[in-house]
């Protein structure tokens, strides 16, 4: 998979995350690892920062369920609008985590 194809694969996967559910950067990387040969949460984060504006970016969070401070308030508003389980200004990862192939 070329770097451009990987960017597309990340964005396509993020676009499939259902409202009210999330994936961590690492989970996105893991979901694509076998197909892509890559497994870097940091790379997924970079892709989301550069190219994620057209997909539901707020559905990809860090492993603790948070967002970078500069976009945290906007993400929180989107989580609440989608009824995403939130605890202490972070997504409740136990309740909201999603994996490709799970029911929507």
List keywords for this structure.
104 residues, 52% helix, Alkylated DNA nucleotide flippase Atl1, participates in nucleotide excision repair, Ada-like DNA-binding domain, two-stranded antiparallel sheet, 5 helices, two-stranded parallel ribbon, Arc Repressor Mutant, subunit A, globular, mainly alpha, MethylDNA_cys_MeTrfase_DNA-bd
Mean pLDDT figure: 94
Looking at CATH, which topology would you report? Arc Repressor Mutant, subunit A
Biggest sheet, in brief?
2 strands, parallel
The secondary-structure element order is HEHHEHEEH
- CATH architecture designation: Orthogonal Bundle
- What does the overall shape look like? globular
Helix content: 40-55%
Count of domain modules: 1
Structural class: mainly alpha
* Assigned CATH superfamily: Winged helix-like DNA-binding domain superfamily/Winged helix DNA-binding domain
**Order of neighbouring strands in the sheet with most strands:** 1-2
Count the DSSP helices: 5
What can you see in these coordinates?
This protein has 104 residues and is mainly alpha-helical. It has a single domain (3-96), classed as Winged helix-like DNA-binding domain superfamily/Winged helix DNA-binding domain (Arc Repressor Mutant, subunit A, Orthogonal Bundle), CATH 1.10.10.10. The chain contains five helices and four strands. It has helices at 3-16, 25-36, 41-51, 69-81, 93-96, and strands spanning 23-24, 60-61, 86-87, 90-91. It has a two-stranded parallel ribbon with strand order 1-2. It has a two-stranded antiparallel ribbon with strand order 3-4. Strand 3 and strand 4 form a beta hairpin. Helix 1 packs across helix 2 (25-36).
């Amino acid at each position: 998979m070329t770097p451009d194809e990987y960017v597309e694969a990340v964005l396509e996967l993020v676009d499939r995350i259902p409202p009210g559910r999330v994936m961590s950067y690492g989970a996105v990387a893991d979901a694509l690892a076998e197909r892509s040969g890559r497994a870097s949460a940091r790379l997924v984060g970079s892709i989301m920062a550069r190219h994620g504006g057209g997909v539901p970016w707020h559905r990809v969070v860090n492993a603790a369920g948070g967002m970078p401070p500069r976009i945290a308030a906007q993400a929180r508003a989107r989580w609440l609008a989608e009824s995403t389980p939130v605890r202490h200004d972070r997504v409740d990862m136990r309740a909201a985590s999603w994996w490709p192939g799970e029911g929507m």
